[in-house]
Every structure is written in C-alpha cells, then in structure tokens.
Design a protein that fits this description.
Layout lengths: L2 H53 L1
C-alpha cells in the first residue's frame, strides 16, 4: 500500500467512527426529547380532561 493510501486509511477509519458516534448520539437525543414531549402531551391531555370535568 502506498504512503498516500495509508494516510487516507489512517483518517478514514476514525472519520467513520466519529460519524457513527455523532449519528448515534443525535438519534438518542432526538428520541429522548420525543419521550419528554409525549409525557408533556399526556399531562396536558389529563389537565384538559380534568378541566372539562370540573366545568360541568
């Protein structure tokens, strides 16, 4: 393997690892925020139902 190819491979492998790590962290972050939003929506839904019941 030529020295140029070795340099490319030397940077390519860590670049792929960094890419997948960043992608995984991003997906984990989005999923975490989605769960929080789902909890907030459920809380709001319960508050609206309670408000409707007390208003009758």
């Amino acid at each position: 393997m030529s020295p140029e190819m070795q340099n490319i491979v030397t940077f390519l492998i860590p670049a792929y690892m960094a890419f997948w790590l960043i992608t995984f962290l991003y997906v984990f972050s989005v999923r975490s925020r989605q769960k929080n939003l789902e909890k907030d929506i459920e809380t709001l839904r319960m508050l609206v139902e309670k408000k409707k019941e007390s208003g009758k």
